[in-house]
Amino acid sequence: MLAKRIIPCLDIKNGRVVKGTSFVSLRDAGDPLELAKLYNEQSADELVFLDIAATQENRGTTIELASRLARELFIPFTIGGGISSVEQIRALVTAGADKVSINSSAIHSPNLITEGANRFGSQCIVVAMDVKRSGSHWKVFTHGGTRETDLDAFQWALEVEKRGAGEILLTSMDADGQKTGYDLIITSQISKALNIPVIASGGGGELVHFKDALEEGAADAVLAASVFHYGKYTISEVKEYLHLHQIPVRLTR
Helix, strand or coil for residue 224? Predict the structure, then answer.
């Protein structure tokens, strides 16, 4: 069985890492490069950097950030926010990003998924999905969770895989920042239906939440922010806990 991954997420706004609750009430969490170095030392499996205001402000992710990270980090990282063209994907990959995350642009121009996968490989294309429960279904949102679409999350996940994405970053807006656990229902539904990896995101607050996301949620990886940024747990502590519960993780480099 492949090792499960623990991935810190760094949401970037105005050059700083921020964290909120259900995508609002943002507060400062530190310098992105300094936090990245810390998580690198703690044996994070990967890092995800999302410029959360890029789409709303109609601008692209800065190439400078990708270049700085590539010079300083020795683990894979994904970068996203405002990416809307194959040329922008190429620029970020050339600057050093291992993967790019697309969200709103994938919904508005689904061919971007296919074109990106064809040119750079499926493993490079991560489609981020911000979802919120609506009755017995989950709707997909765009523009940093500010705009609801008519897309059903489960159906959109199936299409994303069909179009060539290599991975899905699934964030529950309901659970985001609440620290009460990941949304195991939609995570499990999508994870079990797809053949590509699913990263569970939104709601991690206790060690058992990571375990539940990987077991009950059937996720391939778990992403978290607050518990790492504000020092409740280290990545090593999460991995030791998972190891004790017979969940395969990479404990050392």
Answer: strand
